Amino acid sequence: MDKNTILGFVLIGLILIGFSVLNRPSEEEVARQQRYNDSIALVQEAQAAVQAQQQKQQTSQPTDSTLQTVTTDTTALADAFGAFNVAARGVEKTVVLENELVKLNVSTKGGRIVSAQLKKYQTHDTLPLILFNETESNMGFTIVTNNNRVVNTSNLFFEQNGAITKDNKGNQTLTMRLKTSGNASLDYVYVLPANDYMLNFSLKANALNTVMPAGTNSLEMQWTSKIRQQEKGYAFEDRYSQVHYKFVADDVETLSATSDDEKKLPNKLKWISYSGQFFSSIFIANDAFTSTNIKSVKETEGSGYLKSYSSDMVVGFDPSGKETTDFKLFFGPNQYKVLSAYDDDLKGDNKLLLRSIIPLGWGIFGWVNRFAIIPMFDFFSRFISNFGIIILLMTLAIKLVLSPLTYKSYISSAKMKVLKPEIDEINARIPADKMAERQKATMDLYGKVGVSPMSGCIPTLLQMPILFAMFSFFPAAIELRQASFLWATDLSSYDSIWSWSTYIPLITPYFGNHISLFTLLMTVTTIVYTKLNMANTPTTDQMGGAMMKWMMYLMPVVFMFMFNSYASGLSYYYFISTLLSIGQTYAIRATVDEKKLLAQLHAKRAAKGAAPKKSGGFMERLEKMQREQEKRLKAKK
């Protein structure tokens, strides 16, 4: 081996050694893990003792199925749970917190919310819309006692501390208390407003510093949940289900929606959102989450679930009870105006930006949706309840605004069309092997008559942000969910006029087992509009005319595969938009006299020939580039 190879191996070795040293757990982490392992062992020993004792008692006394005990052995309880041994067994009961929008079931087992129902919504098959139940979600805090016992609140039994109270504003307050063998306790305080999807959640300690190690100022927290399939189209709903999280005073980021993903985030987080296509559970810290690990795992189709989410994080905690640890919990729809309203009283970096979980598109597309499409949609919604009519009116309004650009684009194409005989003459005069010379002659012609090939593209490009914004808006608009129009029963999902159950290779994975009529209509009108445009656009062999035509007719078919499982409201919009574009084209064509247009171009050429030549401009730069290209080609020859 030479010197460089030996040096490379030495550097690799040093990097590996450095990496192992940097990632070595601290003494505190090792001690914490050891305490956790010891506690698990004690719990397992206690459970084994319980099982043996229960087997002995089965023949002498009946079992009460409502009584859930971790152990009945007092010594084992004390060893496994320390001061929290009195909470290791109890009777599981459910307390209901309910307002006009949500119904929340809070269990004494873990003191947590075990079910969340959104009362104004239903699943696609008209069942009550429940975000999760007790087997699909969990939330708990890990507590270390001063005798090195590690317990999790999700495994302990709380007691309802008094009745649910209600103030003059309709805010309901529920307190769940976790007791110890002494006077210390931990309170979960839930406050549900009268007409809101957001509730307050607080941890309040009562002399827990007497049973926890000195210097404790934080708790480890765990939050898991499965996302139910609520809509009829699994693939489409899965595509829009994702974990979102916001850094304190910073942007919102996401985990992958298309594959399993996991991230360790050392920076402070303000909130974490477990989002489906239209509904979310959001955990918001009044202060911050730290040392957070978030994970997303895809579930298989047919399981009834889309994804499984889990988060492990650290939150601040005062065991003495002088300060509370406060959160907010949101269980509700991904509706733009609902989520935006939570920022009304906040400024600057304090804004939650919960609306960011709605996929309105990145960059300029999101801005178009926020400041143009959504306000227009909300305006029409105030007066009209039929969303199919609203989409039609929005399409008309957009076409009206874009009509000057549409007219300019058509005139540009018409100019190119009337010049086609002269372009054909150039192509006949100059052989095909002299492509640079052909292009120069064509550009000279365009320059003399004052036509720019780019003038027809720019208006089209200016319309693209609106087209892409609508592509993002319709699948994310919860207002269209289960809104019917004509044969479509749900404008947020596909409209099937024919379906089958047989799996067809290459068809089912990309097209689905159904045919959407709005998508079919969109495809047909797009092909008609393409034919109309191709008839008005001159194509030559040098432009790859045959290939371009083939591609233009192929694209609508490709889009049919893409849109067949998309929101029918989106296909309906593109169908109406294309239909109006066809009407606009015929209307503009009726007002444009091609002979008169050609005469104007010739007059401009004559006037330009008499006038002194101006320097600069796109055409002159293009001609200069062509001359340089010709020089390089001649130099090569």
Detailed description of the structure:
By secondary structure, the chain is of the alpha+beta class. Among the domains are: 80-356, Beta-galactosidase, Chain A, domain 5 (Distorted Sandwich); 493-592, no CATH class. 42% of the residues lie in helices and 24% in strands. It has helices at 3-22, 27-57, 74-81, 234-239, 336-340, 364-383, 387-418, 420-429, 435-449, 457-476, 508-511, 517-536, 545-563, 568-591, 594-610, 618-636; strands at residues 67-69, 89-91, 94-98, 102-107, 113-122, 128-132, 137-144, 150-152, 159-160, 165-166, 172-179, 185-192, 198-206, 218-228, 242-247, 252-254, 261-265, 269-275, 279-298, 305-316, 325-333, 496-499, 514-516.
Kindly summarize this structure in a few lines.
With 637 residues, the protein is an alpha+beta fold. It has helices at residues 3-22, 27-57, 74-81, 234-239, 336-340, 364-383, 387-418, 420-429, 435-449, 457-476, 508-511, 517-536, 545-563, 568-591, 594-610, 618-636; strands at 67-69, 89-91, 94-98, 102-107, 113-122, 128-132, 137-144, 150-152, 159-160, 165-166, 172-179, 185-192, 198-206, 218-228, 242-247, 252-254, 261-265, 269-275, 279-298, 305-316, 325-333, 496-499, 514-516. Among the domains are: 80-356, Beta-galactosidase, Chain A, domain 5, CATH 2.70.98.90; 493-592, no CATH class.
